[in-house]
Design brief:
With 264 residues, the chain is an all-alpha fold. It is built from 10 helices and 2 strands. The chain has one domain. A hairpin with a 5-residue loop joins strand 1 and strand 2. Helix 2 runs parallel beside helix 5 and helix 3 runs antiparallel to helix 7. It starts with 5 loop residues before the first strand and ends in a 7-residue tail after the last helix.
Amino acid sequence: MAKAITTPTDSGSVRPEIGLIFGALLRADFTVLLRSGRTLLLNFAVPIFILVIIGLRTKGGTSAFAGPGFIIGLALTYGLMASSLIGYSNTIARDRDAGVFQRLRVTPAPTWAIMASRLAVQIVVDLIMTIIVVVLGGIITNTVFSPGQYLLLVCVSILGGAMFLAIAQALVALVRSAAVINAVGRILYIVFLLLGLLGASGILGTTIHAVANWSPVGAMINLYAGVLNLSGWDWTDTIGLIGTAGYTVVGAFIGIRWFRWDAR
């Protein structure tokens, strides 16, 4: 039997190697996620449903609003936002209320590893969702993507997943009550979605359209569409990149700076 690698601490006790600790956290978090039907629904069923419904209704459309880039970008953005603002934030809030984080903090696991494991699991699930949606989206829209486009879509999904996770982490940091987090997360979800969709359509005027381009949903949709048509990259796509990176940095700062490990 292989002997576990340990590291002596300053107090003379022996602590397992960080690799073993992080691996155990990842296995535990993946197990919890796989047993959560709600989480799997938000990560996979919702974006696929949106992709199929919008893709079939706009099949054959020639406008930018009905193009493959918009349809696939919307479905991916929808899935990333749902899994973070509704799934991830609620899971963190419930675990904090239940004292899970307090119990984990008395284990040898560093605090950064506890949160990094949660985030890493969510990013991996987001990547799997991205591959499924892109492949299915290509079939529905009769679009063939090059290996480079697949890679760019994955990179955008990593950035988008990080952005929505950062926003969700900031929400959990600023709000202590799990019930309030659940309500606020749903409200933000609806506001972001409507602002992104209605703004992108242009039906609310140029001012709202400009504001929507800087919203999380608008930024992500534009960024997805931009990487699928690099030759047509313009200032709107650049706004998407700047906005996504900006939300990620600000959300991460708030989420780390003001996060509390207990609900009191």
